[in-house]
Amino acid sequence: MANSLYYLLFKTAHTQRKKNIPFLKELNLAPGQPKVLRYLYEQKRECLQKDITKGCDIEPATVSIMLNKLESNGFIKRNYSEENKRNVYIQLTELGKITFLKWQAYLDEREDITLRDFSKEERKQFINYLERLYDALLKEE
């Protein structure tokens, strides 16, 4: 049973997270926050909190806490709508963009190190398998 799919996925994710934490701390980020920075960076526009919640698949209360911390660290800015004060638009600051790009460069380097013994074809297959696994898990919901 030690090599079951779920055990290997858990073990791999746990090890990856442990290896990432020192660099996250260096960037003044907490686990989970890069996902929000990535979403905002890829949108290239201001987003509502509900968009971030949906796009990152994170609970609204969790997103709210993350946004408070990201704002206090200068990574994001909140802009309040003139028409509807309940609509708060979130945007990346320049520091947020720079920090995300540093994080992405780190991930690219980690990926190269982690998959160094995989051929290009094996890397493509591996990514395809992970995408299919993720899609299958989503279908269960």
From TrEMBL:
This is MarR family transcriptional regulator. It comes from Thomasclavelia ramosa. SMART domains: HTH_MARR (SM00347). Keywords: DNA-binding, Transcription, Transcription regulation. SUPFAM superfamilies: Winged helix' DNA-binding domain. InterPro entries: HTH_MarR-typ, Tscrpt_reg_MarR-type_CS, WH-like_DNA-bd_sf, WH_DNA-bd_sf. GO terms for molecular function: DNA binding; DNA-binding transcription factor activity. The keyword Transcription regulation applies. Residues 2-135 form the HTH marR-type domain. PANTHER family: TRANSCRIPTIONAL REGULATOR, MARR (PTHR42756), TRANSCRIPTIONAL REPRESSOR OF EMRAB OPERON (PTHR42756:SF1).
